[in-house]
Write a structure and sequence with these properties.
One of its GO terms (molecular function) is methyltransferase activity. This is tRNA1(Val) A37 N6-methylase TrmN6. One of its GO terms (biological process) is methylation. It holds the Pfam family MTS. Keywords: Methyltransferase, S-adenosyl-L-methionine, Transferase. The protein is of the alpha/beta class. It has a single domain, classed as Vaccinia Virus protein VP39 (Rossmann fold, 3-Layer(aba) Sandwich). Helix content is 25%, strand content 26%. The chain has nine helices and 14 strands. A hairpin with a 4-residue loop joins strand 2 and strand 3. Helix 2 runs parallel beside helix 3. It is globular, with a radius of gyration of 17 Å. 50% of the residues are buried.
């Protein structure tokens, strides 16, 4: 299951600095209207272009990180996209809305999250997705589990992932196993996630990952020998604040150099309202600024 540090109900970080500036823009742009029920809320994303059922407050809930990740997928992309650790499917559904030429598999280990994703696909608000999205339950860190789920090597054109943000032992994990899994990486860290992406992507395919800015070195190290031509987009709460997140998009099998792109600033000034650039991405389904246009077409 994916993890967004800005909302991290499953862990207690040693510092709150990484969470500053994330809640306001999430509330303003990402969640939209919310309809509560006994076991889930129905939340609108991308200006109402799709809706997702999420667990009630107190469990892991997706927000703006998933939408930023989805916005890193090139406009006009075709073929097959895998959302690894999809949770309830916000990132993958946003990719499907933005890119009508893609089929999207939401790959998730947590059966409750997968069940909510399936219920979301049945909502009338998501009828326009036209059966292009499916849910697959599998542990992405186990190759045999991927094969058993029908996820064969080099079968994907694009992989997106929003992995747990916290390293084991650096935070106090929730006693709730599902909440802990959503926010704390396993003992092997990020490497199994990138290893899975490298296995599943065709040569020349794209991987996109969102991660805390403090973990950029781990992302780049995990890409070494697997992905190249990485483009790094820093995400800042405000123009004068350090980056909170990085979005890294790289090419499978490439040896191209890394590029540091201009950053995305979520808020203008000191108020809670999103910047125009953030609003375009989070409400209007605009592509992530700073990433070069690429012709990522299916084989």
């Amino acid at each position: 299951m994916s993890g967004e540090a800005g909302a991290a109900p499953g862990v207690e970080p040693s510092s709150t600095a990484a969470r500053e500036g994330t809640a306001d823009v999430t509330a303003a742009c990402a969640a939209g209207e919310s309809t509560a029920s006994a076991d889930a809320t129905g939340d609108a994303f991308l200006g109402g272009r799709f809706r997702v059922l999420q667990p009630p407050r107190g469990r892991h809930r997706s927000g703006h990180d998933a939408l930023l990740l989805a916005a890193s997928v090139p406009e006009g992309a075709t073929g097959r996209c895998l959302d690894l650790g999809a949770g309830v499917g916000v990132a993958g559904l946003a990719v499907a809305v933005r890119c009508p030429g893609l089929s999207v598999d939401l790959v998730e280990i947590d059966s409750e999250a997968a069940a909510l994703a399936r219920r979301s696909l049945a909502l009338p608000a998501n009828a326009a997705l036209g059966g292009r999205v499916r849910v697959i339950e599998a542990d992405i860190t186990v190759p045999s589990a991927l094969a058993a789920a029908g996820l064969e090597p080099h079968a994907a054109d694009i992989v997106v992932m929003n992995p747990p943000f916290y390293a084991a032992g650096r935070v106090r994990a929730s006693p709730d196993a599902r909440r802990a899994t959503a926010h704390v990486l396993g003992e092997a860290g990020l490497d199994p996630w990138l290893r899975a992406a490298a296995r599943l992507l065709r040569p020349g395919g794209l991987v996109s990952i969102i991660f805390p800015a403090s973990g950029l070195d781990e992302v780049l190290e995990g890409c070494r020998g697997r992905f190249g031509a990485a483009v790094v987009v820093p995400v800042h709460a405000r123009a004068d604040a350090p980056a909170l997140r990085v979005i890294v998009r790289a090419v499978a099998g490439s040896r191209g150099p890394m590029t540091l792109a201009p950053g995305l600033v979520l808020h203008d000034g000191t108020g809670p309202q999103p910047s125009n650039a953030a609003r375009a991405v989070l409400e209007q389904a605009a592509p992530l600024p700073g990433l070069p246009a690429v012709a990522n077409k299916a084989r």
